[in-house]
UniProtKB/TrEMBL annotation:
It comes from Albula goreensis. It is a multi-pass membrane protein. It comes from the Eukaryota. This is long-chain-fatty-acid--CoA ligase. GO terms for cellular component: endoplasmic reticulum membrane; plasma membrane. Gene3D superfamilies: 3.30.300.30, N-terminal domain of ligase-like. Residues 498-574 form the AMP-binding enzyme C-terminal domain.
Amino acid sequence: MHTGQMFLAALAALLLLLGLWRYRLPHLVKYALFLFNTIRARLRLRQYAKRTPFYTVLDCFLDAVKKNPNKPFIVFEGTTYSYSEADKQSNKIARSLWRHTSLREGDTVALFLGNEPFYLLLWLGLAKIGCVAALLNFNVRSKSLLHCFSCCGANVLIVTAELKDAVKEVLPTLREQNVSIFILTGECGTDGMESLIDKIDQASDEPLSSALRSHVTMTSPALYIYTSGTTGLPKAAVVSQQRLWAASFMQAIAGVTAEDVVYICLPLYHTSGFVIGFTGAIERGATVVLKNKFSASQFWDDCRKYSVTVIQYIGETMRYLCNTSKRNNDQDHRVRVAIGNGARADVWRQFLDRFGDIRVTELYGSTEGNISFINYAGKIGAVGCVTFLHRKVFQCALLKYNTARDEPMRDHRGFCVEAAKGETGLLVSRITKTAPFSGYMGNLQQTEKKKLRDVFQKGDVYFNTGDLLRMDQDNFIYFQDRVGDTFRWKGENVATTEVADILTMADCIQEANVYGVEVAGHEGRIGMAAVTLKEGVEFDPISTCSQVMNSLPAYARPRFLRIQDSLETTGTFKQMKMTLVEEGFSPAVVSDPLYFLDEKTKTYIPMTQEIYNSIETKDIKL
């Protein structure tokens, strides 16, 4: 055989081999790119950790300022801050806070405001003096607001003018605790509050010494982000500098570059909006287009107006966009990447069919968790793939789970049992130096509850995600459900015990068992409660509605009430939810009195088959 023939034969064999690999591994190229980006990110983080002092996301921002000072950084409602302008403004913020407070490196400041540029600039300013930001959910009020503020250990609260009244409700308590409260206005006539904008305007925009933050390390807290978790009031999850970097690399792993324009319409108090969106854009050196809140009708117009190339979503976001009226220009945009979580398979397909060839990168993770997945292949319905990296770095597993007893199954030796492929199991991830779990600020009890011990051998410790997932034969993994006392509605986690506490404050209610129920055509589960009434007292629909609407954000309000003579509990007095969840809110199924929260008339009204049918047909919007 001649040399040329041998070369052609070798080439043919190579092409055949590659074809077989592609047949067996249809996502090989995408996986190779994902693997390359992931390894590169891990190597960079390792390099950052070796630097003295530690190289932070703030340092990355300052390098971007030097490299592209005039590049647009934040675009908001027609106003643009360049990288240089954002740097100077955050210098002024840092100097004003340093001068007018006792804040020093390591202290915590709570931010209570909606999506606006000052949110981002405040964080940069706080980072420049080594302070930690606690990102308060702007929906919380009263008892929950006080709790969220207190548990993060902050002694300074910064609030936007729009939320001033919410702070005034708890102002006496905050003043008793000697909390410094700054409002983002030029002047303030309320005792116990100070204006901040005037102080910022008077401050110098000169750079601050890095010595003010010289003790920041990889394990230092960077943020406190609140999560409902499984029980009780919100908990302040500790986001370390290492964790902040890891989540900020998500954009890079998804293929985002410095040339991209990232659209953030998710709340900045969430990990998705602030970390994956904002600090992820800093890591890339990209431009951020910030929206005060999500608007399905304005979404694509904004994308066209600002030449957006990367969008973020949660499951509900996609559904809302698909439910808007079709337009001839639905695919007239520059969006090429969508990053998010919670996309239902049917909505995912509908989204792509309608809005064009967009690379949907579905993520899985939690604010406090030590494991995450990325659906690098774009396989519809999957939240990611368990690769050898996950097995090696994260040491994760799906465990057989007893939903009736609300605990993992164990064998005769007392160790947990792995779920087989195709079988739903509880996701756990071993807690190690490379996959740490920082826990919750000021809440050792809840931190300990998230740890699962003696999983596969004596002494091992795993992070319990509280999520049930399923793995297919190709190692792609699919989210199935949540366990415990949390459900998700409108993209928000709702802690059932917090809602139950609010319900029992109503004069007529003795006990409440809160849970989430599915609604056809909607992502997540909507709030429902089985309640018992106080002896000799009738149900008061108006006062109960008032209690709920005044104390809970819209997404957490139980839209359905089921009145029972008694609540079913286990032998250890845990409230039983499974049967209640399965029976749902259909009057044809439930014989107990049922009520529906009518927010227009501000009362609970009897649940009828007509109302049920209207919800099913979406004539009644939830």
